[in-house]
Protein 1
Amino acid sequence: MQEAVLEFLSKRHSTPISALAAPGPDEDQLQLMLKLAARVPDHGRLTPWRFIIYRGDARKKVGQLLADRLEQLEGPLTEARKEQELKRFDRAPLVVGVVSSPVEHPRIPEWEMFLSAGAAAMNLCHAANAMGFASNWITNWYANEEEGRRLLGVAPHERVAGFVHIGTSQTVVPERPRADMEAKVSEYQGPWNE
């Protein structure tokens, strides 16, 4: 069992959103994915995150809202740019917004709550992949723009940890170069010195 888990983790990758297609998860599969996604470190058991489900016609509505908002920000869009925005949430059969929804607490900092939301997004990707689906976790311009977040159902005090696009892969994703671990791992040598 441990070897299978290690093998699974060693092959983790993101599938390009353009390669995600139907079928997506059914309702029971989605509920299981979300339940597994919620099994994350959560200092104080605050559950400082939530999920927003974008599927069916909601994906097209979101695309239109985003295209309209981007035109307000940048002026008239080219047809290609407008089409890109219209299809933002319509490329995969399911998109799950993972939202950091901090809870006031006298000792637990907000950044820890944001990390918990990020862990939920990663768990969601793992759960989707373990169930045979492909996924891609992104943010994009609308995650960092106040009105964009509002249009996507995110409250003013919340921030987007990511949008996880889930579907069935239509391609084999080639392995990409990974981090040079020797350059990324060090033994503690004492306080940081310039």
Protein 2
Amino acid sequence: MDVKERVSLPNYTKDNYPKTTRSAVLNKVFDIEMKDTPLPAMKPTDVLIKVMAVGICGSDVHYYDTGHIGDFVVKKPLILGHESSGIVVATGDEVTTVKRGDRVAIEPGVPCGHCNYCREGKYNLCPNMKFMATPPVDGDLSELIVYPQDFVFPIPDEMPYEIAALNEPFSVGVHVCQKLDVKPGTTAFISGMGAVGLLAILAFRQFGVDRIIVSDSEDLRLETAKKMGADEIIDIRKTDSLEEIMSLTNNEGVDYVMDASGNPAAEREGLRALKRGGKIAYVGVPTTDKIPLDIPFMTDHETQIFGIFRYANTYALGVKILAKHLDVLENLLTNYYSLDETRDALEETRTDKGGSLKVMIYPNEKLRS
């Protein structure tokens, strides 16, 4: 469902736009309400964006059905949503990177820009980060948002808004490849074929990985992984993933592992799937506080372990890569809702892991399609 042909530009300026916007607000667990929420005054370097597509993330669902993720707790009404794209409808006087009418992907985290982490280019680690839909920061399941120009990125005319919204989960895989310094002609194993894992297939391939093995327990996800370019798929309901990986690699193991499952057993097995000198990236967050790891194996194999937190400096590159793979990316889009149907969209994502992949919400579309 591509909405790009049906977009109208409202007649707004930096000094003349609504003081409120319609938003889907999480009042408390399982309680989503449509509200008029305030829009802030635009700074000279801000843009006003008409939000066109927002993907539902697992974190949105977690806040919706439990009210917290770790130390982040929903203590007051919160606007969800952080995987998004839209169209610029007004700009501040000092905006130079985009103009009215530009279609953009929206990077959802705004760092302080002044701390040591920001100065070193590691702004994903900024302790003052304002990340959409992470309490107490509101997300963008709204018709309009005001946002800094530095974190909006123009997208090609041929790129649907839905695909541009995928740049957020895709950026995780790009960041993994950059942190692991992925080299061409190598092998990789990715566990967990949610959106992040599926998009990581594309990222690893783009960085030159020759052979990609993946695992999951859902038929739709495994089928989609093949469409995304996985060379071998492992159904963990039927096959021991570690044994299968060793069989596929002549008992040598793989160069890189990315765990996107957050499953404690998978996180332990992923480590042992590495060849000597291999690298593993932990992306999925387990439900338990501590996971025992095999230290003797790690020292004997000189394993390199990376914890991954979001991403940094990936968005422009992500847009360029996604633009080359529009057809294959359509495989991830399975369900479509209007803003009024946000609760239904969250319930779909929460309860139908076997039948849905990426659920999209259209804040400025009135009818479901």
Protein 3
Amino acid sequence: TMSFCHNVVNISCVNSSWSNDVRASLYSLMVLIILTTVAGNLIVIISISHFKQLHTPTNWLIHSMATVDFLLGCLVMPYSMVRSVEHCWPFGEVFCKIHTSTDIMLSSASIFHLSFISIDRYYAVCDPLRYKAKISILVIFVMIFISWSIPALFAFGMIFLGLNFKGAEQMYYKHAHGSGSCSVFFSKTPGVLAFMTSFYIPGSIMLYVYYRIYFIAKGQARSINNASQQLQIGLEEKNGISRNKERKAAKTLGIVMGVFLICWCPFFVCTVMDPFLDYTIPPPLNDALIWFGYLNSTFNPMIYAFFYPWFRRALKMILFGKIFQKDSSRCQLFLESNP
């Protein structure tokens, strides 16, 4: 098969060894992932922007994360798709640097948002009386600023200053740079640094915070149960509600953590190990793991939004064009006391 890369630029490109059928299947699958990511996150962005009732500090954090994931779907994934299927990079060296930097920045920013959302949820569940005073719109703004700026400085600094291959220049020119490819490449120290910054630190914060939330929520539910057992008058259903809420919260947290770890852990572990294994991890495996990581951005709107009844109502209104009606932004999506 004639690789599309050969038609675009005359470079010594490793011809895609896959048959046309395999490539067509891969393109179809990746286009589906891209469209789902873009559509899902776009709906979250429109919902939170449009409905006045959703203008809460927490939701602006979710809105910002959806923006990151939306941009990843629009700006990064389509080019990664060509690289993954064709086994080469037909878009030139400068754009390779821009693409790699943007990829690292947006993937890291998405993970940063997840860890800040966990901190926000911690205060909401564990200190509800002081939550509004502690997590003000200013605090949320600072969280959003950190989530965008640190990954941007880190990613663009690393790639454009060539710090990512410090100490492994020969390997870099042989592996990542040669044969017209454009893969994310790290030498030992920068690899460990990237692993710590983009995955280990924000991931550990999430794990610790969700672990705390789970036990505090359990304790709260137990004390409500004990109190209601002492009263035992007409509180049977309240008991059920608290147990239900606790179960639902635990389930949501379990899914959030599970999806995050399943999606990103394999890629980051391979990235940090590769330089120590003399770059023996095959590029197709690395590529597959990057796509696994991207799936986190595909699932984020499903996890965070589809768990909330307000999101389902907003989705219906968007799909049926009801948001174009007069005063639709003032529509009540949920009862104020119970978002």
